Amino acid sequence: MDSAISDARTPASAPDRTPLGAAADNGLKIVVVGGFGVGKTTMVRSVSEIRPLNTEETMTQAGEAVDDISEVRGKSATTVAFDFGRISLDARNVLYLFGAPGQERFWFLWDRLFSGTLGAVVLVDTRRIDDSWYAIDRLEHHGTPFIVACNDFGGPEHSPEAVREALDLDPRVPLVSCDARSRESSKQVLITLVEHLRARYGGHAAPPRQEFV
Amino acid sequence: MSRPGRDDAPDRLYTVTQGRSSSGRDNPFDLVTLVVAECEPRPGMQSEHTAILRLTEAPTAVVEIAAELRLPVSITKILLADLHAAGRVSARHPYTAAVPDPDILEQVLVGLRNL
């Protein structure tokens, strides 16, 4: 899986770098989580103003990022790759959208990489709903608010109720359908997430259980 | 170093950071901290430092720097902490709070709707 992402790497001397404006001073994070092939990179690409970039973090199996480089030489370290895109919201605010693998080893790095994340989109392939359970469980554990977006792969339609039931989703968590290839659709997913955050933090909704971790 | 592949990386990383340990919890740089160069690269500077100063002529996030340099995030943070300690870059850390500022959320919504 990592190699597929690595192919998209941009050379350090990429001439197509698009610099931010000089007044940019507040970076924000939203994470798109999902299993392999569910469309995370596609969604990031759909809304990003830059070609998605890829980077990685190295950690030991104890769950720490590497505290001693020599540990990398042993077998006790592993590397997690993730890609990201960027949306300049206004002169000061810049939103970074991260596509993150949902597999188990990734979650050891969540706090280190994604503390302060506004929220997450759990991207679901309705043909493989089981892949999403773990991500939802971990997001709840970390207290990260999220919505669920079902990427439309043109397969048989699943009713929102059926998906919600299959995921055992809290009724307060929004569930939407989307086409990750579409900029407009992906944009709507992000808007749904931020509206959910606003309702949650604005006191219009009962505090979701994710707050108690 | 004779074998190709991942085994190369640790040696390179070891050199880049002069063998020092990785960014600890006291490293203030976040993935989305925006870094701005405060000086020009100088001859004889470590090549990664030179690359960072060129990249950050405009504000550039830590994660973008890591991607452009093809270095792990934690290693990039060490390099940035060095440059910051020497006054060669400034850092615009993200506004973070346990609960997001409603004004910021509103600005995010406006920005997304205007896409």
From TrEMBL, chain B:
Residues 15-25 have a biased composition (Polar residues). Residues 1-11 have a biased composition (Basic and acidic residues). It holds the Pfam family DUF742. Residues 1-26 are annotated as: Disordered. This is DUF742 domain-containing protein. It comes from Streptomyces coelicoflavus.
